Amino acid sequence: MWMKIWGAILIGTLFVIFSCDTYTVKYLYTKSGRGIEQSIDAGIIEAGIVTDAQQGTVTLDENILKNAVKREFIRYMNLDSMMENAYMKNSQLDMSISYDSNGNPWIQVEFRTHISYSIRDISYPLTLSRRIAYESTYI
Predict the structure, then answer these.
(1) CB atoms within 10 A of CB 14
(2) What's the pTM value of the predicted model, to 2 decimals?
């Protein structure tokens, strides 16, 4: 009789732990995606250099863009200078700019981290990327 009760308590506890971890991973995945998108927008605003105001041509300073995206992402996610907080460890944010055949720039951001919530020794890897086109000519 006692074995059944202890077994039920153990299974219930494991279910609660797994449910909390699953919710935390989904929540941080969604929040990180929004954070990347908002950080890219903030970086574009900060790094934009108007080269021809009459034609609406704007170029991006890549160094300013990288620094602004990282700074805004850290602020949005409440991370410390090592890009860690109570739930995220070993985080890394990489950003690059590539150009398609028409010469239009694409901003690629990839975020990698490890999430742990209920049991600190178990971590779930999370990789998230966003690729956003930047239209630099406005007519």
Answers:
(1) 11
(2) 0.81
Number of domain units in the chain:
1
Place of tokens 């406005």: 138
Q: What pLDDT digit, counting tens, does each position of 37-68 carry? A: 999 988 888 887 766 656 656 677 889 889 99
Residue 139 lies in a domain: no
Nearest to 17 by CA among 135, 129, 118, 137: 118
- Specify whether the CB–CB gap between 107 and 134 falls below 8 A: yes
d(CA 109, CA 95): 4
Tokens representing residue 51 in the block: 């080269």
Q: How far is CA 60 from CA 35, 63, 64, in A?
A: 20, 9, 8
Q: Is residue 87 part of a domain?
A: yes
Q: Which of 41, 86, 102, 88 is nearest to 68 (CA)?
A: 41
Q: Are strands 124-133 and 48-52 parallel, antiparallel or unpaired?
A: unpaired
What residue numbers bound the domain in which 7 lies? 2-133
* pLDDT tens track for 98-123: 877 877 778 899 999 999 887 878 88
